[in-house]
Amino acid sequence: MRLFAAVVPPPAQLAELADEVDRLAHVPGADRLRWTARPGWHFTLAFMGEVDEELLPDLRARLGRAAHRTAPFPLRLHGGGHFGRAVLWTGAAGGLDEVRLLAERADAAARRAGVPMDEHRAYHPHLTIARSRSSHTDLRPFVTALTPFEGTRWQVTELALVRSNLPGGGTPGQQPRYETVDAWPLGGAG
Ligand code: 2AM
Q1: What confidence score (pLDDT) does residue 175 get?
Q2: Measured in angstroms, how far is the CA atom of residue 44 from the centroid of ligand 1?
Q3: If I label 54, which of 32, 69, 129, 147 is the partner at 20 to 30 A Cα–Cα?
Q4: pLDDT for res 42
């Protein structure tokens, strides 16, 4: 199954983001973007891709230990950015060092469990809110509109393992469905 480790913001913070994204619909060109499905909003920590079933018990144990070793930390949704002309995202502020550490630990847990992981790229916490349908869309006006956005801070207390179910049927524009298959409390979180 296709898996990734993630931090999922709580419902109140996701509702704030939903209000913000509603406002972006008024930015010219918004209809040319494919907005991500709100129930699936997350910060990816480590993307694993297809994982053999037989690796799952060790992977779960190692992710649980990675969570246990990491203390809870504060985070808030913050501003926005883009990757080229393809991806529009909102970022994070607050415990950035801590979220990077948790991402490194999730990545190491997956590698040690035998999951072939991509080469390390600089980890950039982001929550994808839209993807461009064409290479002609300038995402900068959306980033500018997102700049003042500051979400309410929350305490990250959980590391989630999320399954990505890719859409079948080949209908254009269909989105993956995300399903949290397991979650572990961060150390001291209870
Ligand atoms: P993205 O939002 O920037 O596309 C599920 O696909 C999650 O894993 C998404 O948040 C996606 O990031 C992230 N991801 C990271 N690397 C990926 C890869 N090589 N292929 C697909 N998704 C990846």
Answers
A1: 86
A2: 7
A3: 69
A4: 98
